[in-house]
Amino acid sequence: MVTKIKDNHFLLSVDHEELYTIESSQWIYYIEKAQSEGWKPDGTLYDEDYKFEERSISEDVEENLFIYIKVHDEHLHWDGNYIEKSNQLIDSVDAYYLAVALEGIADKDFLDFLQRGSLRICE
Q1: If pLDDT is split at 50, 70 and 90, which confidence band does 53 have?
Q2: What angle do CA 100, 93, 88 make, to 5 degrees?
Q3: How far, in Å, CA of 1 to CA of 84, rounded?
Q4: Number of folded domains in the chain?
Q5: SS3 letters across 65-117
């Protein structure tokens, strides 16, 4: 018997440090449905400082410089998507309007979570 492992998105409330787990297929559906309901996404924000801190564990200055250049390059090429899991941020206003677009579609717990402020789409 083959067990199917569900792919999930983990959303972290930045202000409240609360984690919300949602199946990736449901997250993608909500993003697409919200857009069809009139939500105009602002695009996610690449958190360059967070990415650098998470990767730079070395005492070696040259290695950290290389990491910084790589992270900065990723930032320059960031497309603002909501699907990739890259510790990107959804700002509080964008999250609020996502929730408004999903009223009557998504469950109350998810809508309440979206309205708590900025979110991080965790890796």
Answers
A1: confident
A2: 110
A3: 30
A4: 1
A5: HHHHHHHHHHHHCCCCCCCCCCCEEECHHHHHHHHHHCCCCCCHHHHHHHCCC
The pair of structure tokens assigned to 113 is 């979570």
Is there a domain that residue 28 lies in?
yes
32 is a domain residue? yes
Token readout for 90 is 């959804």
pLDDT digits (tens, 9 = 90+) for 18-32: 999 999 999 999 999
Asked, for residue 63, whether it belongs to a domain, the answer is: no
What's the pTM value of the predicted model, to 2 decimals?
0.84
The domain in which residue 14 lies consists of: 8-45+80-121
Tokens of 1: 């018997």
Considering the domain boundaries, does residue 107 fall inside one? yes
